[in-house]
């Protein structure tokens, strides 16, 4: 794109799409021309010029054109590497270094919501190896190209089946215990082989947090104080007082019953229309990784 500004009208023109109404010859004859360095729309706008309505259009047209110009990633492929590890690769139509393009990688266990969890943010490459998928199962990946705050349309969704890691049962011989040790999963269920479904790692800790949040005090046999009043609080008026009370109750329960496995960094409660959104940011003590868990609780009318 070659641009020319009009110092008199404070408009800039696209010389590759000039219309008779632009009157480029008159602009040059009257010495009103203004070049831009660098020769870009961003620079013209930065210097206070507006797009010509005849050869360029409105600011909205510029935004739509910019979005369309950012291509989507394609050919997304993946492979299960075993032991909870996998590889992802994709292609891109442009030079990602010259165009300053990075990528956001998302994963979900639900094909209808492929953007549930952000795995990589502003990743500057076309392939990567990832770990932490010991639970296995069907996972759905999608990649979005990014240039600054500008995003492309997502790639097609990739379904990748990951084989779960089977841990040996029996007592641990290490002094502190294996942080990946298997335990009954949440919710309680029977696996296809007729055994109690077992879980471990991130998924197991997420299950324990959900179990604590959704259990009402008095429901747990021999541990009547276990749980929170989260399900009772949703019947209270949906306002800031409800959010503050819920935040306090969740934080206290996590510190009391799961202090050996995590350190609570932040509990944020958002009350929006007919839903109470509980967001927990915590440090997993087993490997000092920071994790985030969101739980939405419907609020009856």
Protein model, in words:
- The protein is α+β, with helices and mostly antiparallel strands and 301 residues long.
- The protein has three domains: 3-69, no CATH class; 74-162, Sandwich (Immunoglobulin-like); 183-298, Nuclear Transport Factor 2, Chain: A (Roll), CATH 3.10.450.40.
- It is built from six helices and 17 strands.
- Strands 7, 8, 10, 11 and 12 form a five-stranded antiparallel β-sheet that branches.
- Strand 1 (3-6) and strand 2 form a beta hairpin.
- It is elongated.
- Mean pLDDT is 78; it is low at 167-180.
Q: What percentage of residues falls in helices of 4 or more residues? A: 10-25%
Number of domains: 3
Order of helices and strands: EEHEHEHEEEEEEEEEEHHHEEE
The CATH C-level name of the largest domain is: Alpha Beta
User: What is the β-strand count?
Assistant: 17
Q: Overall 3D geometry?
A: elongated
Instruction: Enumerate the spans where pLDDT stays under 50 for 5 or more consecutive residues.
Output: 167-180
Q: Compute the gyration radius: what is it?
A: 27 Å
Query: Which CATH-level-2 architecture of the largest domain?
Result: Roll
Quaternary structure classification? single chain
Intertermini distance = 56 Å
Please give the count of helices. 6
- The CATH topology of the largest domain turns out to be Nuclear Transport Factor 2, Chain: A
